[in-house]
Amino acid sequence: MTRLSDATLSELSPEVERPGYRRAEARIGIVHLGLGAFHRAHQAVYTEDVLSKGDLSWGISGVSLRSPDTRDALEPQDGLYTLSIRDGSGDRFRAIGSILECLVAPQDPEAVLARMSAADTRIISLTVTEKGYCHHPATGELDEAHPDIRHDLGQPNRPKSAVGFLVEALARRREKGVPPFTVLSCDNLPANGRTVQRVVARFAALRDPALGRLIEEEVSFPSTMVDRIVPATTDADRALVAKALRMEDAWPVMAEPFTQWVIEDRFPGGRPDWNATFVEDVEPFELMKLRLLNGSHSTLAYLGYLAGHETVADAMGAPGFEALLRGLMRDEASPTLAPLPGFDLSAYRDQLLARFRNPALRHRTWQIAMDGSQKLPQRLLGTIRDRLAANQPFDRLALGVAAWMVYVRGVDEKGNAIDVRDPLAKDLAEATNGCTTPTELLDACLRFETVFGRDLPLSQPFRAAVERGLEQLLAQGAAQTVARFPEG
Ligand code: CS2
To answer: pLDDT by residue (tens digit) across 307-330?
Structure first.
């Protein structure tokens, strides 16, 4: 079968939208760290629209920080891949051309550093997931004992971590007299710009105090809120795309129609004219998204997985799930958010529930359940802190936390092993091994200070609420616990 590439673009089936510009004339202006499906279904598409409008200076150099898989799939395709938009009413397909080159950092760190320190590169964007920032999730500070950070401090010109690459590239630019780039975090972290700035400045200061100061004073780190649900691509998806394209694409990406990007407009070196929402302060949007969408997602992922549901849409169809999430968002999370004038929060919540029901996406609960130790603080625990301070109930949020505790034990309700993917998976399994009562499990998990901080384990109302959730989950199982949430 023919394979998607520059040479075969013209043979694509006519229903597939193609790049509306000459790819050969596009230049690289952005280096993106973390070349996963999310980037390819989100920022790369916004940039594709910019290139199509005729501004060819913003092509992307995509960097994988670990595995060569994406490069191996995309390089024979000249970086081209298909975006498939799904909502159950028939898929739409678009060939995306904005990624002009793919690099694999562990194989050639020098090529990555050269690209990052080139004068044409004016933005470094990142989707490296929560754990990629090498920080303590509960405090946002750099984890100076992290093996990659220690490695990068020892060998600054052969970095492994995103933080190490950013600092070495900024140091090289300073040496060459090239102005710094703008750093654009696109991960689901609270105040993601400030978080990346904090870890980068700290790492730089450990290397060289003058470099630390330069970064504090001269480098811009706008915060962003990114949103689009992008499940991992499966072989069935590949087959479906091949049929529609009438050619092979080794790694297409699947996404929902909805997409949103809110960005703080602080780009001293210029930026593409992305069709995003530019604001002065992204934080209210970020908190809204993290607490409503991602908080619901994680709650649904742990409870849904334990109740035996493979996908988000399956769980949404089971008794009580929608009611639980509606109540969590409306009654517990929304009152903690700063008002967004002119924004209809109630419509936003309804839209989220509809997005979760999307039958065509097949977003696996297991995928969202990954890395919970890095996600819980900003998705559920921050909201709980605000509820505690306001002396208000938070039973649904606490049930989400309890479900995570049951999940990370690594055994499901039928006694089968759960493949828990988390940087703390081993420690969590060891700590919870042999815990049979709710109190034992609670105590074992609350010892993880990087997740719960020092305050929550000492809070009596917090312990009581999570323990109630654990009692129900351990005695009745997740399906029955959730089924008792009334509609309305
Ligand atoms: C999800 C997110 O995997 C997860 O943890 O909650 O990736 C979610 O799909 C996106 O944030 C949606 O924008």
So the answer is: 999 999 999 999 999 999 999 999
